[in-house]
Amino acid sequence: MIEKVFEFIGNHFALVGIFIALAIAFALNERKRGGASVSTNTLINMVNHNNALVLDVRDGKDFKAGHIVDALNIPYATFDERASELEAHKQRPIIIVCKMGQHAGAVGGKLKALGFEDVHRLGGGMSEWTATNLPVVKA
User: Fold this and answer.
1) Handedness of CA 103, 26, 91, 100 (dihedral sign)
2) Residue of 81, 70, 121, 78 lying closest to 98 (CA atoms)
3) pLDDT per residue over 30-73, tens digit each?
């Protein structure tokens, strides 16, 4: 099986090279579009030193089960209707948190389209936050 993969790569080197280049370009574009990914430590520093707003886009049930202190919850499903609630925070850095990182990029792109400039995503989402045993608020 592996031999066939290497044979394919050898026979179609240009095709494989183009695929790799497109995959890298896609990843870079997604990162740029949805905001840079930040670590849990960077999130903590941005909240403490830059007055960053943590925007949690998980549904209400997940948010109540545990969220980052002072996070604002606007679920992904209702983001378009509730985006105007963020106008008061337009000058603050915003860090978007979702369950595993799947929705943060999309919301980041929407925020950038609305004129928000300092937009970031928590790499790994709340799964990463809880995996590193950082505190959560349950409400």
Assistant:
1) positive
2) 121
3) 666 678 889 999 999 999 999 999 999 999 999 999 999 999 99
Whose structure tokens read 């608020």? 137
pLDDT tens sequence across 76-128: 999 999 999 999 999 999 999 999 877 898 999 899 999 998 999 998 999 99
Q: What residues are paired with 67 via a beta bridge?
A: 137
b/e sequence 121-137, b meaning 16+ C-beta within 10 Å: bbebbbebbeeeeeeee
Indicate the residue type of 56. Answer: D
What would the 3-class secondary structure string for 59-118 be?
A: CHHHHHHCECCCCEECCHHHHHHHHHHHHHHCCCCEEEECCCCCCHHHHHHHHHHCCCCC
C-alpha distance across the termini of the chain, in Å = 51
Angle between helices 13-34 and 2-11 (to 10 degrees): 90
